[in-house]
Amino acid sequence: xxxxxxxxxxxxxxxxxxxxxxxxxxxxxxxxxxxxxxxxxxxxxxxxxxxxxxxxxxxxxxxxxxxxxxxxxxxxxxxxxxxxxxxxxxxxxxxxxxxxxxxxxxxxxxxxxxxxxxxxxxxxxxxxxxxxxxxxxxxxxxxxxxxxxxxxxxxxxxxxxxxxxxxxxxxxxxxxxxxxxxxxxxxxxxxxxxxxxxxxxxxxxxxxxxxxxxxxxxxxxxxxxxxxxxxxxxxxxxxxxxxxxxxxxxxxx
Length: 253
Description:
- The chain is of the alpha/beta class.
- 42% of the residues lie in helices and 16% in strands.
- The protein has an eight-stranded parallel barrel, surrounded by seven helices.
- The protein is globular, with a radius of gyration of 18 Å.
- The relative contact order is 0.13.
């Protein structure tokens, strides 16, 4: 049976690092997969990639130990079903604010009677029909379901959201949270910092895995020491632009 390496690492208490893939490019995915990240997140919320692009990126990662995760564009059962059928084993859903929304996401990832996912035959996720065990409950439970906390309403509802069976991880989105609070990108705002701290505490108390990006002004080491299990340390676009800018500045000295 398939075992989700990311779930296994998190269960063993291993601190995991990841990178967002905004570029729908399998070569970039392959390069970053060889770097040693624990997970690469294919971004279909802000990135321009298609389902075919995601499949190519996941294939590019398969020669390494890195896990792939896909951030779906929204809490849409059709989008969730399609990316699962494409072979995604780790799902990240943006902007979940209520337990009802969290439950809808979980149900979209589960076949009846536990959910509402359509059972297609010959899908890539089931090795094009060559793996009938894919449809078993034990295989289904290997899918890691993560959702994002990105608004004051979501922070207020963390206890209820985390209590939904099937939710594995809550990922705090500090930029969207800052926007929702009217202080976009002001990461030193005292009210925002207090809201982030409250979210951290409630997620840790729930027993779910705590995740986020590395906050501006802090380090991954500091955040891991506060109980984070997964930290996103950058993006493909950011790494390329920063390295290019650094090289240019060095050449112009």
